[in-house]
Each structure stands twice: as C-alpha cells, then as structure tokens.
Amino acid sequence: MTPPGGKGMRAKSVRVGFLFNHDQIHQVAHGLPVALELALGGAGVEVVVASSNDRLSEEIRRLGGAAIGDRIELVELRLKSAAARFAEHFLGRLIPAAKLLIYKDNLDFFKSLDVLVVPEKTSLVLKDRFGLTGLKIVHTRHGAGDRAIGFNRASARFDHVLASGAKICDRLIRDAGLAPERVSIVGYPKFDLYPPPRRARRKGRCPVVLYNPHPAPHLSSWYKMGPAILEWFADHPEYELIFAPHIMLFERKLVVTIHPPGIATVGHIPPRVLAAENITIDTGSRALTTMEYANRADIYLGDASSQVYEFLASPRPCIFIDAHHTNWAGDGNFAHWTVGRVISGVDQLESALATAFVDFEKKYRKVQEQLFAYTFDLGDEPSARRAAAAIAKVAGVGFGRRRPRNRGDES
Fold it and tell me: What does the CA dihedral 327, 370, 165, 119 come to, rounded to 10 degrees?
C-alpha cells in the first residue's frame, strides 16, 4: 500500500480562500486581482473566493470574468441559523450584523482552508473566538490611508500583512508592533485594475471639484457642514462639482459607531442641490469604487478618506475640511493634510478654491509627489503579482507566472 503523499499519490493542494464580507463592494478591487494572480501562478494552490452577499458576488464575477468558475471557485456564504437571520433582520439597518454573524454560520468553510486572505480585521474572530488557530490569515488591507485604526494592535495578530509602500510598513512595525518579517511591501493591486491616466487640466472650462467625505461621523465633514458645502456650489456655477462620498456614507440612514461611541443621522441632500446643473451626485454606484471621479476632477475636496491617495496618483490641488477643530499638525494620522490647504468652514471655501492652483504649484506639488512615493511602492511588476507571490510564500508553495490552460487543451 502506498503511504499518504507517497509515490503514485497526488500531493494535496493548499487551499487559499479570499473573503469579501462587507455591505458594499469597495474592498473587492483590493483583493480580487491578487486572487487572480495566485490562481494563475501558484503551484499546487486551490484558490477560492468567498462572498457574503449577492452584491459582492456580482462584482467578483464582473471583475474576475472567465476565471470565476474556471481557475477560481466562488463560494457564496450566507446566514444559515434562524437566530442569525433574526438578528440581521432587526439590527442590520443600524449595524453590520451579518458581517459578524457570517463566521459562526460558515465555520466548516473556514476550517477547509489553509490560508485566508482578507481586506479587513473582523476575520480575526476566527482565531480569537472560534479556535481556528492553525488557519493562517493574511491581511491585504484596503486603501493606503493614515487613520490610526489601520495601525492598531490588531494588525500584529495577522500571520502576514501586505503593505502598499514604506509608509504603511513603517507604521505597522512602529505603531502596531508587527514583526518586520511578517509584512511584505507589494504595491497597490487596485492600480492594476484601474491604472491612473496621465492627465492635465483642460483650460477654458470650469474647474471640476470632487467632494469626497468620509463616512465616520467623528472624522467626516459631511454631518456638520456637508449640505452647506453642496449649497455653496449650487450658488457658484463657475465650478463643476462631483459629490462622490465614500460608498458607505449613505448605506444606512442612521450611523452607529463604537469607537468612539455615538449615533448620527446621515441627513438629506438639499432639493435645490439635486436640481443644480453644475453638480453631479452619486451616493451609491460602483463608480465610487473605480477611481472614475478621482480621475475626472481637477481639485480634491475632502477630509479623512484614504481615497485622496488614489487622487494623488496624478498630483493636483487638494483642500481638506477640518470640521472637528483637530490638532493635526505633526500627527501621522493626518499626514494627507500636508498636501493641501486645510480649512475649517464653508466661509473659507471661496478663497481656498480661488488660490488652489497657485498654491499647488508653489507649496504642494513636491509634497504630494514625496508622500505618494512613500505611500506606494510601484514598479514594472504588477502589484497583484507581488502580493500573490508573498501569499504563496506564506502558504509554503511555489509561485511563477504560467500560461492559463484553455478548456480545450489536452495534457
């Protein structure tokens, strides 16, 4: 009898799962390109992508194309127990209950994996609460922003973390206490999907301003002055405004936060703003996740969203709104506020816009270029391929680009 794994037996493949577990689709572009590369180049790897709702499954199929169902298996995780479905029905409008409950109801799936790759930190519950200590969990992160939550102690509990550049790597080691050997700098896989175009402002037309507020009440400008900002632009048709907030801002009418504790209402967009010809409003389409609006705009207007770093791929004027009287100078959590003027009220918006292009050339262009280079380590090799190679190393398998096998090939 041939022993397990001996001659004549096919070696067991390593099963790597990529989990997308969120209300919205914005995390898919950060992880799916890596799954596609791993499925193409990983030796002895079985790649599985798991989604927790139909919206995510649709985006995975859209971006993954023919690879989904061919080189990559798509598993749709859903709430199974009556208790979990009951909790989601009554709590889902206030908090992401399904996001937390999905783990317990699908433990068999997670137990089937050797490595789990995730863009968020909730999945650590598998180790902490459900005892899957042998499961290696790799954090891809999503975005390349500066918020402290991205560098808290939870980051050090992953088996490996993928960083976009030296800025992220340095803070993970310094602030989160992550061991240097457990972080890899891989670039930014989302740029593989949506490469920023080379652009220049077209003269002779209205400047296009992108207003991109963050969803968290304690950081965002929206809750205190967002509608007033929109009305200011309705009164100033010499500017074209794109209102494209973080895709989660309007996901729920009532926002409940734990850190810090609080409740806030999202409110409404003023009717005259909806009717304004110089304002484009998008509060929920997938265009909010594809860099479409960032690529169209001449000026960025925001607060704490990491999307400003995607905007900086083509250096342009930025204006930041401090709605909370923040003592931000020298604070690494607000490093992005060094690349443009910071204002504290709508009454300062006119002057900031009037001097935005001059200020950019005199003060901020070089700062933007330096911070972008510190944030993103980009080169000739696609970021997703670098990330896939790092995951293959964690999984203990080889990695090398190979030609996809056609369905009609015989071997």
Answer: 50
